[in-house]
Design a protein that fits this description.
Layout: H1 20-39, H2 44-51, H3 55-62, H4 70-80, H5 94-108
Helix pairs in contact: 2-3, 2-4
Protein name: Helix-turn-helix transcriptional regulator
Pfam family, one: HTH_3
InterPro entries: Cro/C1-type_HTH, Lambda_DNA-bd_dom_sf
Length: about 110
């Protein structure tokens, strides 16, 4: 599924383009969130109450819905005690370091 960006001057909602490979990652994230919730024996209702989000939004997060804001994902991760895991994303940028090293090596010549 590819979600198309829709922008209107009337202020209607926009959606990000999400390619199938990236949707798989979001789906895995949602599944991981759901498993973490169940391991803690938390209900969707409890998560909803603690975050102020609707149960429908909690369900969408657990399904990896790309239309749900990152802030909502963070709120749920916060309740689960996992929000710090988000800070690990891109912390080990192996490709970026390699590209930087190549550039540094070419300057030495």
């Amino acid at each position: 599924m590819v979600t198309i960006v829709t922008i209107s001057k009337s202020g209607s909602k926009r959606s990000a383009v999400v390619f199938p490979k990236n949707q798989e990652v979001l789906s895995r994230l949602g599944e991981n969130i759901q498993l973490a919730r169940k391991r803690r024996k938390y209900t969707q209702t409890l998560i909803s109450e603690r975050t102020g989000l609707s149960r429908l939004t909690i369900r969408k997060i657990e399904n990896g819905d790309p239309k749900v804001s990152l802030g909502h994902y963070v709120a749920v991760l916060g309740v689960l005690g996992l929000v710090e895991d988000l800070a690990k994303v891109a912390s080990d940028d192996e490709l970026g370091r390699k590209l930087q090293d190549i550039k540094l090596m070419s300057k030495q010549k």
